[in-house]
Amino acid sequence: MVRTYRRKTTPVDKEQLKKAVLAVRKDKMTVSAAAKQFDVRISTLNDWLKKNNDEIKNLDDVVVLHKGHIPVMDSETEKTLVEYLVHCNDMYFGLSAKETRGLAFDLAKKLNLKVPASWEAARMAGEDWLSSFLKRHPTLSIRKQEATSLARATSFN
């Protein structure tokens, strides 16, 4: 999975795309004429025409949304995980990246969440999931822990 995706083409204007789909479906305009009139690529218009093959009466009936990816955990579950990681860090027992990935997998299994097959095989969350998780929660610092002596730990507030 690409961690920082860069779009290669300019995004299409959704209103223009809706009007083009409506013109083809309702007004029986040709695809090439609608694409030229509404300044939309023919291939893009064809893709959305396949997705909008129901009867269209007005502009609100046209759907031009991308579904995106389905997250493994909802925001509440992630918030619980973040709180636990912060609590561990406060007790000078921070978790490494691998331990965090394993904890995320265990939490997902405990809550009977649907996890990807790659998680099942490795028995831990993926590296890309961890990268995205840390981007969503920039206050977290997940890194290899170093030993803290008793004297140093007691001198901390």
Describe this structure in words.
With 157 residues, the chain is an all-alpha fold. It folds into 2 domains: 14-61, Arc Repressor Mutant, subunit A, CATH 1.10.10; 75-145, no CATH class. It contains 8 helices and no strands. The chain has helices at 14-25, 31-37, 42-51, 75-90, 97-110, 117-122, 127-136, 150-155. α1 packs antiparallel against α2 (31-37). One of its GO terms (cellular component) is nucleus. One of its GO terms (molecular function) is DNA binding. Keywords: DNA-binding, Nucleus. It is found in: Nucleus.
Question: How do you describe this structure in short?
Answer:
It is found in: Nucleus. The protein is mainly alpha-helical and 157 residues long.
Count of alpha/pi helices: 8
Shape: elongated
Mean pLDDT: 85
Give unreliable regions as ranges.
Answer: none
DSSP strand content: under 5%
Class of secondary structure makeup: mainly alpha
CA radius of gyration is 24 Å
Number of domains: 2
Span of the ends, CA to CA: 41 Å
Helix share of residues?
A: 40-55%
**SSE order, as H and E?**
HHHHHHHH
For the sheet with most strands, the description reads: none
User: How many individual β-strands?
Assistant: 0
